[in-house]
Amino acid sequence: MRMHTSLVLSSIVVVFASVLAGCAPEPEPIDLEAERSAILEADRAWSETPPNVESFVSYFAEGAQFLAPDAPLAVGTERISQTASQLFTAPGFSLTWEATMADVSDSGDLGYSVGTFELSVNDPEGNPVIRKGKYTTVWRKQTDGQWKVVSDTPNFDSPATGEEE
Fold first, then answer.
1. Sorting pLDDT into bands at 50, 70 and 90, what band is 25?
2. What angle do CA 18, 20, 24 make, to 5 degrees?
3. Do 160 and 128 meet the contact criterion of CB atoms below 8 Å apart?
């Protein structure tokens, strides 16, 4: 009898757990197009930050990576700030970029943007050197809903040779 009662109780618990699991609310569907747009908007707003190092770095998540061309890998906001500071204070510094596309994972918490940029700094003689390139930026949605950069990888289209066309 005792074994029978135990078996009945176990069965009731399994049925009850199954019913409760079936009552769990469905997760809200993720609007992937809205998330793509949010990444593009974050990228656009970020592009307006140079030469303000603090504003530029504020778009990076903790532990992020910045793979700036002609510079060592910078990991973490402190190192990224140092790298950006050196670049942004170079004579003749100018940087513009524009995302050409973005995509987001089905889970809606990881995405990337791709675009082009133009960087200008003066050479040792004071002549402007303009470098064009492209980039891929990986973004992660934070718990507060904000998109932050976890890895930024710009690279030049060609070696520096003076003014590029």
1. low
2. 115
3. no
Q: What is the CA angle 149-151-152, rounded to 5?
A: 90
Q: Does 37 map to a domain?
A: yes
| Residue 73 belongs to domain spanning | 32-156
Tell me the C-alpha distance between 3 and 86, whole Å.
76
What is the mean pLDDT of the segment spanning 122-126? 94
Residue 27 falls within a domain, yes or no? no
Q: Which tens digit of pLDDT belongs to each residue from 84-97?
A: 999 999 999 999 99
Residue, of 155 and 159, whose pLDDT is higher: 155
CA 142 to CA 65: how far, in whole Å?
A: 16
Q: Is residue 8 part of a domain?
A: no
36 assigned to some structural domain = yes
Return the CATH number at 151. 3.10.450.50
Q: How many domains does the chain have?
A: 1
Model pLDDT, residue 35: 97
